[in-house]
Write a structure and sequence with these properties.
Strands 2-1-3-5-4 form a five-stranded mixed β-sheet, with helices on both faces. The two termini are about 35 Å apart. It is α/β, with parallel strands linked by helices and about 250 residues long. The longest helix has 23 residues. β4 and β5 form a beta hairpin.
Length: about 250
């Protein structure tokens, strides 16, 4: 008999699948068991710190991220600083089992200084919940930390200016799996021109870590018929957390 927390997690999963337009009955019982099993150990292990975060000492990884952010400072290393309002460094626990990397901040992210808080961010939260993950459990950042004007794609020299900080973030967060969101981030990290349609759902390597690309939530808002493929990618990611990525 599932426990009450497991039933609550399953209920949240089904609710998010409904909001994403996914079939509620799709997936085998084993897939649901795998989803709950992959999720439960992390929550149980983290519960003491979650109950009283102020009493928990700062983790070395979190301190390392703070140091990286201080080194970045009020960055003027590329032209993106000229029109930005805030640097969007990234957020999430450190270390984290999963690290999501998008392309760059949008208007709302530039206003708040936090990644993925606009419409695409709200969809990302739903996508995570649909596979039994919570935003608080993952680290999220972008290949550039300042908003490109008009939400255009980051230019190679802009991504290059942020690259050493991004790589330092990866080292500090030390994720088991990296998930890139969208074509620009995926092509930048993998140094390829291959289309996202052929890269997504397949395993790659970045900084000696497994990397799984999927579609960017902003693209899915414009092209909702691809949501199911992104959902399958995230199911692959969750399964790899339990069984190990290739």
């Amino acid at each position: 008999m599932p426990s009450r927390p497991e039933l609550a997690a399953l209920a949240a999963n089904l609710a998010c699948r409904r909001r994403l337009g996914l079939a509620l009955v799709q997936g085998s019982p084993r897939e649901l068991e795998d989803l709950l099993a992959a999720l439960a150990p992390r929550r149980e292990a983290a519960s003491p710190a979650q109950e009283n975060p102020a009493a928990a000492p700062a983790a070395p990884a979190a301190e390392e991220l703070e140091q990286i952010q201080r080194q970045m400072g009020n960055c003027t290393r590329c032209a993106l600083h000229e029109k930005r309002h805030r640097i969007v460094f990234g957020e999430g626990p450190a270390p984290a089992r999963i690290m999501f990397i998008g392309e760059g901040p949008g208007a709302e992210e530039d206003r708040q200084g936090r990644p993925f808080v606009g419409p695409a961010g709200r969809l990302l939260d739903l996508m995570l919940a649909a596979v039994g993950l919570r935003r608080q459990e993952v680290y999220i950042t972008n290949i550039v930390k300042c908003r490109p004007p008009g939400n255009r794609e980051p230019r190679p020299e802009e991504a290059a200016a942020c690259r050493r900080f991004l790589e330092a973030q990866v080292q500090a967060v030390d994720p088991e799996i990296i998930c890139t969101l969208g074509r620009p981030a995926t092509q930048s990290l993998l140094e390829t021109k291959a289309p996202i349609s052929t890269l997504r759902g397949n395993w790659h390597r970045f900084m000696e870590r497994p990397l799984l690309p999927t579609f960017h939530p902003a693209y899915l808002l414009r092209t909702p018929e691809r949501k199911r493929e992104a959902y399958q990618d995230l199911k692959t990611l969750v399964r790899a957390l339990k069984e190990g990525a290739p």
